[in-house]
Structures are given as C-alpha cells and as structure tokens.
Amino acid sequence: MTKHEQILAHIESLSVGSKISVRKIAKVLRVSEGTAYRAIKDASHMGLVATIDRVGTVRIEKKARERIEQLTYNEIVSIVDGKVLGGRRGLYRTLTNFAIGAMEVDDVMKYLTSHTLLIVGNRLEVQYEALQRGTAVLITGGFNTSKSIIDYADKYDIPVISCNYDSYMAANIINRSLYNKKIRTEVLVVDDIVKDIDEICVLFEGMTLEDYKYYAKTTGHSRFPVVNQDWRLTGILTSKEIINMRNGDCVEQFMTRPPIYAQLHTTVASCAHMMIWEGIELLPVISPSKKLVGVITREDVLKAMQVIGQQPHVGETINDQIAKHITINNDGIHLQVSPLLTNQFGMLSKSVIVAIIEETIRFEMRKYKKLEVMIESLNIVYIKSLPIESDIEVNYEMFDVGRNFAKLEVNMSSGTQKVANAIIMCQLID
C-alpha cells in the first residue's frame, strides 16, 4: 500500500466530524506535508472530507449515489448566498425536506424533524422551538437573531443561516436545487452497474497461457484484465491475443496495452459509445489511484440503458417534457406546437426539432432491430418556421442499416409544407 493510499485509509477510518489538517496527518503517519496535502485533496474529491469556513477541514459522511438528491446545509448557504450565524459544525449534515414557518408556533412544530430546514422570518420563538427539535433554521429577509439562539445552535451543532431573500424566493431556489439533484440521479454511471472482481477473474503480468486456459475454463470468460502485484491495470488479454501464444509464454508479452478503461464516475452512455467505437466487449473499471476495482460488459451496459429507459423519471429533463407532446401511432409520428416548444418569436424552436428527432428515432429503429440508438452525426436543414398550434408530421426513410450502425433521413412537414430535413448516422447498441 502506498503512502497516498495509507492516508486515504486513515481518513476513511476517522469518525464523522473529526478535524483534519495537513500537519496532523503528516505527523501521525510520518509522511511529508506535500503527500498529506495531495491525499486530503483526493479525499475531498471522493466526498470523505469538506472544508467549512472558520471551522476547517472535517471528516464528513460520504453520500451514496441513491441519496444524492439530499442537499447539505453547507450547500444551502451557497445556494441562497447566506451567512452562517451559528452551528457551523453541523453544516455537513443533510436535509431531506424543508418547511415554511408561516403559521402559529404550535402548528409549525408538527412539521419539524432533525433533517428538516425551517424557513422563517424574524420570529424568535419559532426559531428557538425549531432548534429544540434539532431542526436547522434559515432566517429570511436578512434578519439577525438573538445571542441565546446562536449559543444554543453552537452548543448542539444545529445550523442557523441568514439570507436576504424573502421566504417564497428562498423556498423556490432550494426546491429548484433539489429538483436538479433528482435529475442527476437518473444519469447512470459505471458505479451503478460495475461488477466486483476477485483473483480468479484477473490475470497477473507474470502468468502464462496455461493460467489463462485454466481461468477461462473455470469462469467461462474469454477476456481478462491484466494487473501488476499492486492491482494496477496494465493491459487486457482476450482470445484474439492468445492465438500466437505457446503454453509457457508470459501474459505480459502478448496483452493489449495501453488498455481502454472507465472510471466509477464515467456515464454508462459514454461507455456504450466507447465499446461500440472500439469494438470491445469488456471494459475494466479503475479507481482514482489507477487500481482495478471491477469490470463492465457490453451486456451490462445494454441492460442498464434499457432499464433506465423504462423507469419513470423523478425529475423531468427538457427532452422528457418535449416527449409528452409527441404522439406515436399506426398513422405515424405527430406533434402540435405548444407555447413550451417555441422561441422568443413564438415560432417552433430549432433546438426542439433536434430533440424531436432524438426522441422519435428510437421508435423508428425498433421497426428494424430491437436495439438502443445513439446519434453519431446529424446534418439538419431548417426550411420553414412554424407558429404556435401548428401540426407536424415526422417521417423517416432508411438508407442503410448494418450490425452496429444505421443511416437514415428524416423529413418534418406541416400539411403540404416542408419544415426541416435531416441526414442522420447513428450507432446501434446491441
């Protein structure tokens, strides 16, 4: 284990809320301050530590991807451009919902929990009651609060924040941030589908063809990542490379290098593009320290993209909203121009036309192959602008379709008038 990895392991072993400094880490683990500094920066990127104003760097709870929609109080301070009045040590905690204190004190108390943020004006009695129930407080209107409330917040590490927005605007901004976080959870990354590996699923550089044959027979796999003694990825060995090997030949001499790999934060869509473009079936996954942590296969990627396509979205993207206006039936693909789809001149937006193609091309390709589609190139000519409430018909013509690609033309028309014409080349994910 390298010094860098030892520091990361030490940081991960610390309890949540522990203070961390470069000098302290360097002294405890007997490493240079430069090494300690780089490791702490990496720990920050990994979500293990956070720097809080006037507190310093502290160990925080690493948020799992399924909880990424939860904001921390520290993020709330940035979102509302606020000022922390008290409870700074509690800024790394997360909130699950918020409430507006626009009612009597007894009624407000029904909505308060330890993971709730209370948005309230200069009502000291409501602020104090909220703190007693472990609820953080956001004071709107730029008001301050009493010293007793600040002291209570500091004692129990419950954040009290002040901002210049009114209650409605503050709630709206926070709600929008939660909404954006929810959309991000729908973007599949490698971390969601990666398969853990053990020693029988990898080859070490010093192994031979006999080892490959044994592992292939035991696991049923034909592709293996190759690692060194520190489990750092150095290459890939597949059935193509072993054709010219003899039983005693070393894996290191015949493996493919440098290997193509993905990281845990890489999106599944970009992995699909990479695997098709490079014609590979297996993609190793590495950690920030370049160590092998798992693998993904083309089958894993395709299944993941199919599942996410079938799941209802928690937060809607722009394409989701446009898709609601598209009607697909036996007569073809139709759409009516609504105010949401227009630009500042009241005409159908050019970007919406591209989104219509993105949403409908999958339906068209299902007539030929039941595959996922990824647009590689799109050349479009805009012919006529359309006003609100115009009806559009979308028609596709297939030029050529192969195993991994397709070329087709799309025509959009309104009545007898052509609206747009596009030539598309797309990848088919099988």
UniProtKB/TrEMBL annotation:
Tell me the Pfam families matching this sequence: CBS, DRTGG
Family matches, as PROSITE patterns: CBS (PS51371)
Instruction: Please report the stretch or stretches of sequence annotated as the CBS domain.
Output: 255-317
Alphabetically ordered keywords of this record: CBS domain
* SUPFAM superfamilies from the UniProt entry: CBS-domain pair, HprK N-terminal domain-like, Thioesterase/thiol ester dehydrase-isomerase
Q: Which CDD domains match?
A: CBS_pair_DRTGG_assoc
What name appears for this protein in its UniProt entry?
A: CBS domain-containing protein
- Species source reads Staphylococcus pettenkoferi
Lineage, highest ranks first: Bacteria, Bacillati, Bacillota, Bacilli, Bacillales
